[in-house]
Structure formats: structure tokens, C-alpha cells
Automatic annotation (TrEMBL):
Pathway: One-carbon metabolism; tetrahydrofolate interconversion. Residues 5-120 form the Tetrahydrofolate dehydrogenase/cyclohydrolase catalytic domain. GO terms for cellular component: cytosol. HAMAP family: THF_DHG_CYH. Residues 139-286 form the Tetrahydrofolate dehydrogenase/cyclohydrolase NAD(P)-binding domain. Pfam families: THF_DHG_CYH (PF00763), THF_DHG_CYH_C (PF02882). NADP(+) binds at residues 165-167, 231. The gene is folD. NCBIfam families: PRK10792.1 (NF008058), PRK14186.1 (NF010783), PRK14188.1 (NF010785). Keywords: Amino-acid biosynthesis, Histidine biosynthesis, Hydrolase, Methionine biosynthesis, Multifunctional enzyme, NADP, One-carbon metabolism, Oxidoreductase, Purine biosynthesis. The keyword rRNA-binding does not apply. Its EC number is 1.5.1.5, 3.5.4.9. GO terms for biological process: L-histidine biosynthetic process; methionine biosynthetic process; purine nucleotide biosynthetic process; tetrahydrofolate interconversion. This is Bifunctional protein FolD.
Length: 290
């Protein structure tokens, strides 16, 4: 039976370490690191995530600047706010909560963020820095996955890693991070031929496809480490109720894997902890303290 990787506990201890780093920063810089979060519209899940970001930012000793805008905000107004935050010396990190309401150009808004404040790691500048090994910010979810993997396995070099999913936000940066760790990396996607066979060759599986329980237990190589990025809400057995499942059939994979992240309580909590980690890093760099 696989070890369950406790992302919730790991994230809590990372947030504590960030809080210690924040105290050191405040002592040296004479100010708090600042994180600005922009939420447009009333998407219920986004509201919960933004509320949690605010609470955890404050708990880590940082300044939280929350900007809530109505769903009918224009592209121009949103870009003007991003410009204002880029210029604000109290703001070290900027995050625009995704998804944006229909009608807004997500890519244009993200690219408007100053790469030195891009604590979400979503700008093309950040992606380019990661791909070429330059210092920059790595998107929080893949960064969290890497931290969990290194904590579990130590040195990753020479491991066969399969990343299922090729999104700019998770799949591609995850593959870059694993390559940097000297893994042999395969990026699998919807056109991959014989996905089960590809996954069976992997020592490390990162599933980020957004399809509930798509990766089956008998695809997993015995002893492999499985990182499940999926957060899918599906109907529960009880009438009218729902539950969260990942992209991996947890019960099936748990029997064969060496270690596996659960959903919830695996990768998800790492996302906000890594956001705080990146914000502290941004503040240190801006003050020449990194
Ligand atoms: N600008 C961004 N937008 C979005 C990001 C992001 O990193 N940057 N990621 C997601 C949402 N997200 C943070 O914003 C996020 C998602 C999930 C979790 C989490 O802790 N999930 C829990 C389950 C929560 C639940 O019960 O519903 C878990 O997996 O254990 C935290 C943050 C999209 N938008």
C-alpha cells in the first residue's frame, strides 16, 4: 500500500518557514512584503481561494492588498489596475485570479504583469526564464508538486517522469522543473498513443488533465510516485451530494504506487503556500536581499 503524501501538513510547515523569512525581511527592510490579489466577478470557487489567500498572507505576516472588481469590468480598467500595481512600491507580488469572466482577454492581462512581480509565474517572461534556467518565478502548482516529490524521493536524477497534460500553467512548467532535476521527461496528452503503456514506464507520474479518475490503478508501475493535480467535483454516492476526486483513480493506484497524493489534501494546499513562498522571494529580490 502506497504512502499517502500529506500536502496539507507540508504546506502548513512551508507557510511557517515563510513566516520566519517574513520576520527576517521586516527586520532588514523595515516594511512587510506585499501581495496584491485581483478578483474579477463572483465565481464561487475563486471567491473561496481569494479569501484563503488573504487569510494566509496576513497569517504569514505580509501585507494583503485585495482588489475585487465587478464581472462587467472592462479590459482597459483591469489593465490600468495591473499597471498601477506594477508601479506600487508596496506591492512585491501580483496575482490575477483565474478564470476571468468571459469577454476579458486573460492572456493580455497576465502579460501586463511586471515579470519581477509575477509570483504566479504565468507570464511568458517567467516561462522563458524557467525554460532557460534563469532566475524567475515558477507557477505555484508545479512548484508545489516538485517540493512534494523532492521531499518524498530526494534526488530525482535519472528517474523516468511522465507528465500527463500540456497546459502552460501546470504541464509544461512541471516538465521543465523535472528536466532541471535531470529526469527523463515525457509529456503525454490527448493524442498520446497507448497512454497506459507510457505511464507504466514511469517512476514519477504527474497527472494534470482535469478528467476525473482517468489514470487507472493498473497503469501504475509498482513503487512509482504519483502526484495528482486534478481537482474535479463529481456526484457522490449520496443523492444530491458532490465530492472531490483527482485525475487518478486513487483506490486503484494506492494499491500499486509507492507514494501518492490524495485529493483533497495533496497538491491543492501547496498552491497557496508556494504563492507566499514566491512573494517573499519577490520581496527579497526587490530589496536586494535574495
Ligand atoms: N491566478 C491563479 N488562478 C488560479 C490558480 C493559480 O495558481 N493562480 N489555481 C487555481 C485555484 N487555486 C488558487 O488560486 C487553488 C485551488 C485549489 C486549492 C486547494 O487547496 N484545494 C483543496 C480542495 C479545496 C476544496 O475543498 O474545494 C485540495 O486540493 O485539497 C487551493 C488553491 C485556479 N485559479
Amino acid at each position: 500500500m502506497a504512502t499517502r503524501i500529506d500536502g496539507k501538513a507540508f504546506a502548513a510547515s512551508l507557510r511557517e518557514k515563510v513566516a520566519e523569512g517574513v520576520a527576517t525581511f521586516v527586520a532588514k527592510a523595515g516594511r512587510k512584503p506585499g501581495l496584491a490579489v485581483v478578483l474579477v466577478g463572483e465565481d464561487p470557487a475563486s471567491q473561496v481561494y481569494v479569501r484563503n489567500k488573504h487569510k494566509m498572507t496576513v497569517a504569514a505576516g505580509m501585507e494583503s492588498f485585495e482588489h475585487r472588481l465587478p464581472a462587467d469590468t472592462s479590459q482597459e480598467a483591469l489593465l490600468a489596475l495591473v499597471d498601477q500595481l506594477n508601479a506600487d512600491p508596496a506591492v512585491d507580488g501580483i496575482l490575477v485570479q483565474l478564470p476571468l469572466p468571459k469577454g476579458l482577454d486573460e492572456n493580455a492581462v497576465i502579460q501586463a504583469i511586471d515579470p519581477d512581480k509575477d509570483v504566479d509565474g504565468f507570464t511568458t517572461a517567467s516561462a522563458g526564464r524557467l525554460a532557460t534556467g534563469l532566475p524567475g518565478f515558477v507557477a505555484c502548482t508545479p512548484l508545489g508538486c516538485l517540493m512534494l516529490l523532492k521531499d518524498q524521493l530526494g534526488d530525482l536524477s535519472g528517474k523516468n517522469a511522465v507528465v500527463i497534460g500540456r497546459s502552460n500553467i501546470v504541464g509544461k512548467p512541471m516538465a521543465q522543473l523535472l528536466l532541471q532535476e535531470s529526469c527523463t521527461v515525457t509529456i503525454a496528452h490527448s493524442r498520446t498513443v497507448d497512454l497506459p503503456a507510457v505511464v507504466r514506464g514511469a517512476d514519477i507520474v504527474v497527472a494534470a488533465v482535469g478528467r476525473p479518475e482517468m489514470v487507472k490503478g493498473d497503469w501504475i508501475k509498482p513503487g512509482a510516485t504519483v502526484i495528482d493535480v486534478g481537482i474535479n467535483r463529481v456526484p457522490a454516492a449520496e443523492e444530491g451530494k458532490t465530492k472531490l476526486v483527482g485525475d487518478v483513480d486513487f483506490a486503484g493506484a494506492e494499491a500499486t504506487a509507492g507514494a501518492i497524493t490524495p485529493v483533497p489534501g495533496g497538491v491543492g494546499p501547496m498552491t497557496i503556500a508556494c504563492l507566499l513562498y514566491n512573494t517573499l522571494e519577490a520581496a527579497n529580490r526587490r530589496e536586494g536581499l535574495a
